[in-house]
Specification:
391 residues; alpha+beta; Butyryl-Coa Dehydrogenase, subunit A, domain 1; Butyryl-CoA Dehydrogenase, subunit A, domain 2; Butyryl-CoA Dehydrogenase, subunit A, domain 3; 3 domains; two-stranded antiparallel ribbon; 9 strands; 49% helix; AcylCoA_DH/ox_N; FAD; oxidoreductase activity; EC 1.-.-.-
Length: 391
């Protein structure tokens, strides 16, 4: 394994960082999240159409760049560093891989080029707080998480040759603004219930929800007799496709969290070098140095794990959940220490420190928590299996 980045990968990181430095400061982030869409449409055009991030990991045959998960993860590290609100995660990381894996030839040919160009955004809608379960990050996803049986979740019924959806999905990332919904629903009734994915192009009631982390806008989707199109063919391995997409998403999210943690640490180091007490910078105090050193060590370990997960994901290995757990813990520590060491100003809404803390807490609510990510990874690896010992 060659751990060095290629010239192309370094160029991707540099280009994205420069673009975000000009257009995505703390004030820009606050202004963007207060718009109806929850993000800056002009910045999204720059990221998707001009820099090609939306299609970075899609094949060239569908209008993409043809890179791997590694390049997308490195770009998202820079997006996380700036806390840039955009539909990149929901479109390129969650929805597009499912379309690529399960879609029919016609569905891929019609939709993937539009997603790659940024013209069309998409969102993955799963019932209730089941996103992490649907992606097989904290539990097995072959159960009834989509709303099994006759009630609850989202139900799909077929009548007159067309599919209709009924039910509700909450906490859908970018669900209020996405042009395309990929909805997980149960079909087949109580006795033969199975989870399928459907494409919803219009219809339903979408309500933007109040979120702890405003940089990740989400919505409640209510579906009442809404026309839908089956994604792919009936009988496809939906659970397997979701689990594969979940592992890749975890690797990307780990890099994004590492980027946010790195920036939070940088801002804190800058501040303690300027703030003075007793005639000297507080950054010169040994206790402060030790606290920041601990954050730095944790951050570097998380960065190494995230990079490895991104590299391994492109080769079919599944270690994204563990890397995400380590990255989320590093972000939580960096954000909390940042608030503490900024003193009174760090607790104010006007300071950017709280944005990183909210990102940490919000991501754990959506994709974690950390202890469940680790427990599921340990269970999948068989670390706690009981083995008979010969006496």
């Amino acid at each position: 394994m060659d751990a060095r980045f290629t010239a192309e990968q370094d160029e991707i990181r540099r280009t994205v960082r420069e673009a975000l430095a000009k257009r995505c400061g703390p004030d820009d982030v606050r202004a963007a999240v207060r718009t109806g869409a929850g993000y800056d449409a002009a910045l999204w055009t720059t990221l998707a159409a001009q820099l090609g991030l939306a299609g970075l990991a899609l094949p060239e045959a569908y209008g993409g760049v043809g890179c791997t998960t590694t390049e997308l993860a490195l770009a998202c590290e820079e997006v996380g560093r700036a806390l840039a609100p955009s539909p990149l995660l929901s479109t390129a990381v969650l929805a597009a891989p499912l379309l690529l894996a399960l879609g029919t030839g016609d569905q891929r040919a019609e939709l993937l080029p539009r997603l790659a160009s940024g013209e069309l955004t998409a969102a993955l809608a799963v019932p209730g707080p089941a996103l992490a379960t649907a992606l097989a990050l904290v539990d097995g996803n072959r159960g009834d998480w989509a709303g099994g049986g006759r009630a609850g979740g989202v139900q799909a019924r077929q009548a007159d040759g067309a599919w209709r959806l009924y039910g509700e999905a909450g906490q859908v990332l970018d669900g209020h603004s996405a042009g395309l919904l990929v909805v997980a629903a149960h079909a087949g009734g109580f006795a033969r219930s199975r989870t399928l994915l459907f494409l919803v192009r219009e219809g339903g009631v979408r309500t933007r929800q109040t979120a702890l982390d405003e940089t990740r806008p989400r919505a409640r989707i209510q579906l009442r007799d809404v026309k839908a199109e089956l994604l792919g063919e009936d009988g496809a391995d939906v659970a397997g496709a979701l689990a594969a997409a979940g592992d890749r998403a975890a690797a990307v999210l780990a890099c994004e969290a590492v980027g946010a943690a790195g920036r939070a640490l940088e801002r804190t180091v800058e501040y303690v070098g300027q703030r003075k007490q007793f005639g000297r910078a507080i950054g010169s105090f040994q206790a402060v140095k030790h606290r920041l050193a601990d954050v730095y060590v944790q951050l570097q370990a998380a960065r190494s794990a995230a990079y490895y997960a991104a590299w391994a994901s492109a080769r079919g290995e599944t270690v994204g959940g563990l890397a995400l757990a380590q990255a989320l813990q590093a972000l939580r520590t960096a954000a909390a220490e940042g608030i503490q060491l900024h003193g009174g100003i760090g607790f104010t809404w006007e300071h950017e420190a709280h944005l990183y803390f909210k990102r940490s807490a919000g991501d754990e609510l959506l994709f974690g928590p950390v202890h469940r990510l680790r427990a599921h990874a340990a269970g999948a690896a068989g670390l706690f299996e009981q083995r008979e010992v010969a006496v």
